[in-house]
Amino acid sequence: MTQEDFCYLDLIEVGRRIRARELSALEVTQAMLDRIAKLDGRLKSYATLTPNIALAQAAAADAEIARGVSRGPLHGVPVAVKDLCRTQGIVTAVGMSIYKDYVPDRDATVVARLKQAGAVLLGKLQMTEGAFSAHHAAIAPPVNPWSASHWSGVSSSGSGVATAAGLCYGALGSDTLGSIRFPSTMNGITGLKPTWGRVSRAGVFALAETMDHIGPMTRGAADCAAMLGAIAGPDPDDSTAAQVPVPDYVAELELGVRGLRIGIDRKLIAAGTDSDMARVANDAAATFERLGVQVRDIVCPPLDDVARDAVTLCAAEAAVTHAATFPSRAAEYGPVLTKLLEAGRAVDELTLANVVERRVLFSGKLAALFRDIDLLLLPAMNESAPTIASLATRVADPEARIARIRFTAPFDMSGSPCLTLPGGQTADGFPVGFQLIGRRFDEALVLRAGHAFQQATKWHKRRPRF
């Protein structure tokens, strides 16, 4: 087995081999660190690498496993987290110059839970400034391993690149307007935005408190299930973490999808996406039909106005998040985040009240739609493979921004679980994804459907050549 094959093992499979003592956590971790040393100077996915911590955690995992202790599917498996998750004793910079020297004295709950599950922390993954849409000028953006000229997605750019390039077995990302789903489709991986409240946000730097979601990014749905099982659940440190039981997501993967009802709005997709995105969504629907799923043509509640409202609400909540440092330290902020915060500070009470009301109404319409379907199938973005240069020409166009977040931001507003899956490719081989949206707190079904799709296809097994 080559180093590449070794580092592209499924998270669940490498965990099984470690627990069976066919591999040691130490040798797996060293192989991953060697690959990072070889490739990440070019890909720039890591903000901070923690080799000494990783090797110590791997040795501890091996010792526990030798004594017969098993902490579950992540035990001894090297993973990484987006650099907005506080990590005790490790710099947590949030993609910002203001925090470049900030070292927390405790872990975010999600980091603590990964440690409790026996995972090995390789380091912190690079991200956009404050988890919005642009990298700070002092930071080299992560490079898409499929093509350096193409967008790597935001804001969980490092998480998407590292996972796609085999520089970790799984990562944590965050999603406020689409920041797990964009890098997932752009890098050809699988990403889960859980229901809002399913995963604690305690110790995670906020962008917009009522829209932020923390979730796993892996190469397959089963691995997402394993990571979600480790981090989900109530938390006394986060009163918004839901008091809802956490299923055994991995065990439920094998229940199958025959008889499920998936809704698809073909007119919306045809009007709102390029031909590759539309083709991949329709091909995914056909695959589900072959698996015994009832695919139903539906009319999705209108999305564009909700997407506009999401930007307004994100701006207003971000202004609150940054009140201690903006505008007092505005000179240390980049232009894109500055513009967002200035817009947020200008939102008036009546506008905000109308946004909140429309958010509730959209969530109600979506809940009504799920009385007739079990899952909603939509594209992950409006276009399949945007280049960095093409996006730069539209950076000042608000309608282009709304078009890009049309299929993502509304489901941050509703708090719905969304799973992005690789589902095809462009003519030149660039990955193209789609997403499944489920009822609130029904991640088990979303993951089950994603796993069934990946059992029937091989899109998630493709690797970039770089």
What would you say this structure looks like, in words?
- With 466 residues, the protein is an alpha/beta fold.
- It has a single domain (3-461), classed as Amidase signature (AS) domain (Amidase signature (AS) enzymes, Alpha-Beta Complex), CATH 3.90.1300.10.
- It has helices at 3-7, 11-19, 25-43, 51-66, 109-116, 157-164, 181-187, 221-231, 266-272, 275-290, 304-321, 335-345, 349-369, 388-392, 398-405, 409-413, 443-456; strands at residues 46-49, 78-82, 120-125, 171-175, 190-193, 213-218, 261-264, 294-297, 375-379, 418-425, 431-438.
- The chain has an eleven-stranded mixed beta sheet, with helices on both faces.
- Strand 2, helix 5 (109-116) and strand 3 (120-125) form a beta-alpha-beta unit.
- Helix 6 (157-164) packs parallel to helix 7, helix 8 packs antiparallel against helix 17 and helix 11 (304-321) crosses helix 12.
- The mean pLDDT is 97.
Keywords:
11-stranded mixed β-sheet, 40% helix, Amidase signature (AS) enzymes, 11 strands, 466 residues, alpha/beta, 13% strand, 17 helices
Concise account of the structure shown:
With 466 residues, the protein is an alpha/beta fold. Helices cover 40% and strands 13% of the residues.
What's the arrangement of strands in the largest beta sheet? 1-3-2-4-6-5-10-11-9-7-8
Order of helix and strand elements from N to C terminus: HHHEHEHEHEHEEHEHHEHHHEHHHEEH
- Name the structural class: alpha/beta
Please give the alpha-carbon distance between the first and last residues: 19 Å
Q: Assign the CATH superfamily.
A: Amidase signature (AS) domain
Q: What is the 3D shape?
A: globular
Radius of gyration: 20 Å
Annotated CATH architecture? Alpha-Beta Complex
At the first level of CATH, the class is: Alpha Beta
Mean model confidence by pLDDT: 97
Domain count, please report it: 1
* CATH domain fold name: Amidase signature (AS) enzymes
